[in-house]
Amino acid sequence: MLKTPFGPVRQIAIVDDAPHLRAWVRAILREHPQLNLLVETNHAEAPQALLAGGRPDAVVVVLDDAPQRSLNLLRQLMVQKLTPVVLCVGSGREHCKATIAALSKGAVDCIFCPVDPRDPIVKQDIGHRLWIAAKSQLRRPSRTDLPGMSKPQIQDGFSCPLILMGASTGGVTALERVLTDLHPQGPAALIVQHMPATYLTSFVEMLNRQLPQDVALATENSPLEHGQIRFAPSNGLHSEICRIKGKWTCRFSNARETDLHCPSVDRLFASAAVYHSDMIAVILTGLGRDGANGMHQVHLAGGRTIGQDEASSVVYGMPRAAWDLGAVDRQVPLRNVGYAINLAVAQHNENQGRI
């Protein structure tokens, strides 16, 4: 593998039928010394070009007017070579369902064709995300659980805790797995997933069809009840937690110019720290460190904190930042995160029963 002063060169393949979009991705790769264009091809020739030839470190697949072709190619790449796939899509709603389906099937990230492809900040961000995707380690999913772990029964009659989660790159498949393992009538969950508004709406609608819980975008001042899963909307406001008349409630707050993310996992977690042991904070796969500082506040306040481990994370950025701060009580593989949450809920209720 070739190396630069910054590390090994990652090999990238492009699959697209539109020459101008291929040229745009090609221009981004030229400006990043750690990325090299290995092959570019169209959808029709991609299986032979990618599956029979040398293995790229990541494949950029541009969703076109026939997205099923891209989904079929993604399935082949995942089954035969476990190659990280990054989607490239437009900013409209026409590909929302296909994009969420692809992320659910294992695509590691999604980049959006910018209004101004010459914007140097946009090009730098996309190049960095392609490099991160090329470094990611994909593993075949496992349903094996830790020995002795089972889904605890949720006790009634006590003040229930609240589950908070944060995720970014790789979060679609991670959240699908975790939410599937939660008790259907367990405590409410409020989640920040970094994703543009139109795509987040499609993701939430898909989860609501798949899960027994009531899944929706959070609305301001609405109570969070048992059996509900709420996602912080990408509406330019932060989602925070408060308790009104004994009920968990979501409230919105304004973003600051210095905020890197909105909604922010840090802001969500920090707002919950004042409720001490009633909080269960969970941080999943994602690029960057959003959520680490807020989880540290929850941890110091006596809340329970759970992090996804490195081996099962598509990008071990956010969980690593929280772990390095000493904010994570328990770090577990993705396959056990849901069970760890259920166990934390049962322990919380048991402790309340002793008061």
Automatic annotation (TrEMBL):
Response regulatory domain location is 11-128
Q: Which GO terms describe its biological process?
A: chemotaxis
Query: Which PANTHER family does the entry mention?
Result: PROTEIN-GLUTAMATE METHYLESTERASE/PROTEIN-GLUTAMINE GLUTAMINASE, PROTEIN-GLUTAMATE METHYLESTERASE_PROTEIN-GLUTAMINE GLUTAMINASE
Catalysed transformations (reactions):
[protein]-L-glutamate 5-O-methyl ester + H2O = L-glutamyl-[protein] + methanol + H(+)
Keyword Cytoplasm applies: yes
This entry carries the following GO cellular component terms, namely: cytoplasm
Among InterPro entries, the record links this protein to: CheB-like, CheB_C, CheY-like_superfamily, Sig_transdc_resp-reg_Me-estase, Sig_transdc_resp-reg_receiver
Q: Which UniProt keywords apply?
A: Chemotaxis, Cytoplasm, Hydrolase
Q: Give a Pfam family name.
A: CheB_methylest
What's the name of the protein? Answer: protein-glutamate methylesterase
All copies of the CheB-type methylesterase domain together span 156-348
Active site (catalytic residues): 168, 194, 290
Example GO molecular function: protein-glutamate methylesterase activity
Keyword Membrane found? no
Q: What is its EC number?
A: 3.1.1.61
